[in-house]
Write a structure and sequence with these properties.
Elements: E1 2-3, E2 9-10, H1 48-57, H2 59-82, H3 88-99, E3 101-103, E4 106-110, H4 114-121, H5 125-137, E5 148-151, H6 154-163
Antiparallel strand pairs: 1-2, 3-4, 4-5
Helix pairs in contact: 1-2, 3-6, 4-5
Amino acid sequence: MHINSDGSSRIVRLVMPGDLFGMEALLGETYTHTAAALSNVHLCRIPKAIISSLGEESPRLHRQIVKKWGEAMTQSESWFSEINTGRIEVRLARFFLRVAKVSGDMAVAPLFKREDMGLMMDVKFETISRALASMAEQGLISNIGKLSIQIPSIKKLESFSQAGT
């Protein structure tokens, strides 16, 4: 989460299982972001000194970590662009496609608090609620619960997300 100079906050990245985050702290600069769990998490904290020493002690592992870091930055930029351009329904479709667990043509996607989703997409939570209702009416999503939504047809949601660009 990025804290703006006016004190407002903005979710700028979603960390998924297996992702690295916080590596920017290795650069020695003040770290300008904070992390907030939107669901239950398990994480592994690696002290800065250990990461720094990997360059000398295990160059191969160090390269792997730096590679993962680069991939995380690229994914973050792509994700941020996808969920911040276009109509809100299209942005939500892109978001759900990115986080969904697919089984055949159906899928289940996590659903965060409307306020958190609004912070990700720079809209009010009421806008998120209206967009979810609209998507449900169109048959793009169903069974909207507190923690998840169902995607009856991944192909239909993909087509919708691409047609809306």
